[in-house]
Write a structure and sequence with these properties.
alpha+beta; Beta-clip-like; 5-stranded antiparallel β-sheet; two-stranded antiparallel ribbon; elongated
Amino acid sequence: MPRKVLQQKNNSNSSNSEASTSVSQLHKASTGKRSNNSTSTTKKKKVSVKPPKPPAHQKRQGMCWARKTNGAVCDQKRAKGQDIPYCKHHLRKGDGAVKVVNHPDPIHGKILVARYPLKRGYQFVYWGKRERITPENEKNDDRQIHFFLNDFTQYGVIDPTDIDGCVMQFAASPGKSEWPTLHTTSNHFGTSTSRTAGRSYQLIRDVKTNEQVAHSYGNEWFEGRGIKRVDVGCVKYPLPKRPIAPKTLEKIKEKQRKEREKLKKAKEMEEARLKRKKEREEERTARDHKKQRELRMKRRKLMNRNIA
Ligand SMILES: [Zn+2]
């Protein structure tokens, strides 16, 4: 079955439109800048989007990427003999910036939300055991993601199942009318021989307290499992809503107009049918009355004769 967001090469030409939305936007914005200067201004002005910048504490060499549950930056060194940029504590507990909670609707199971406001650019590591793809672990691929080295070569998969410290495995996938708050990157941790491996994910928008940290698994993930993609945001744990595109809005309006017309037609037809029915009934009663009158006349005649 397809794993979460198949990433073929790297972010900018990833085949998954959902996950790479923001990245392609960035790409357009960065390449667009040059062309905007040289070409005429007939094109619509695009809002320039700067690539998300990781927070300063995630640029420190050899230090843990996580933040504590109280918001402070972790001051520990990365765990020894480990490629994942977390200290021993945060490998076990997961980044304190987020927490795993149960969605109010049990259909969604566990989800990942921000413990406090987080800035766009914040990075999380989706990590787990590095495993070879075998028919056996194919059965257990719900949470696996592909592990790439040099952006191209795949060295098995990252399997976080049973590792509670990898909180990223609980991040939900947004529904069709919602935006993701995270995207996947081509930044991988591990080697072709390491036991664990990881890939960094990055916030593509600011996230408020209790807002969901979610990334698209890709349509194939849902199709392969026969699961319908539904919206996952709720009052308690929201996700940003996608605005309705003008074209879609037009389509919706057109559909509604057609439906109204269809209803009107059906109503008219029903009214005509009822009218015909009424007319037939009236004809029938008139006929019956006539018959009865004739019968009465006959009887009277007979009676008259008998009396005579
Ligand atoms: Zn730490």
